[in-house]
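The methods section describes the discrete structure representation at length, but only in general terms. Each protein is reduced to its one-letter sequence and a matching series of backbone shape codes. I believe one specimen quoted in the main text would settle the matter. An entry of this sort, consisting of the sequence and the corresponding backbone structure tokens, reads as follows.
***
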Amino acid sequence: MPDPSPAHDAETYGQAMDPAKEQFVSVTTFKRDGSGVATPVWCVPLDGGFGFWTSSGSGKAKRLTHTTRVVVQPCNGRGKVRDGTAPEEATAHVVADGAELDRIRALVEDKYGVQTHITRFLNRVGNVLRRRNRPYGDRGVVVTLRQAAEPPPQ
């Protein structure tokens, strides 16, 4: 298991995550009690950070209504963070409609292609089997990465 607080050195510190090169990013949102919940998400580059889509019924969308604090780190599709990377503090806000949501949707569909159609289909099947109507990708989330600064004191 990777060290949750890796040492910051010249090789790892200050090298900001590049959302354009990442397939998945672990986004940790925080409950009211302060405990974190990490979720792997697709990501698309936006100015100063990245965006992703989610459902308005998801836990992460609900948690972002009371705090904008998130921690992000490159990961695989199952949420295992990549060795040699460090978690980064960031802020996030949910977008319900408008040009920003349209842009996130277009970028996700361009980057992930047929995968978006497969996951949309699986969402529909899950809704039928569970007798619910959870929307698919009806919210966008914009994550703003903090600028690299000096390493924290050790």
Notes: Residues 1-14 have pLDDT under 50 and may be disordered. The helical segments are 59-63, 99-112, 114-130.
